[in-house]
Model the fold of this input.
Amino acid sequence: MRYKVWRSNKDRRLHILCREGGEAFEALPAVVRSMGPWTGAPEGAIDRLRLPFRVLLNQQGFAVVYAPVAQLELELTPGAMHAVQPANAECPQCHGDGHVPQHGGLRQKTCPRCNGRGWIRAIPAR
Done:
C-alpha cells in the first residue's frame, strides 16, 4: 500500500497524509478538504512511514501534519532503524566530576563544558 502527501497552497506548513488515490482524498472530511487548495507532494510506501503516522493512517484514514517542508520527516531512514547510538564520553575538562577548580583550587564551580553532567555527547565517526 502507498501513501500520498498533499500540501496546502494557503498555508505552506499544512500537510495532509492519506492513502494514495483520488477516492482516499475524496473520503477526507469536508473541513479538512476545505483547508486547501491542495498541491501534490511526496508519496511512498506505508511500510516506511514512522510509527505515529502509520497508526493515524490506519485509525483515521488520514493525518494532518503542521511542519515546514524542510522539517517534514515522514519516513524512517535506513540507518535509524538499526543504528547503535554512540556512548557518551567523559568530559575532558572535569574528568567526569562535573566540577572544575576555581581560584587556584580554593573553590569548585560547575564545569562550563558539560554543565555539571560529567559527560558530553560523543561525536559519531564519519
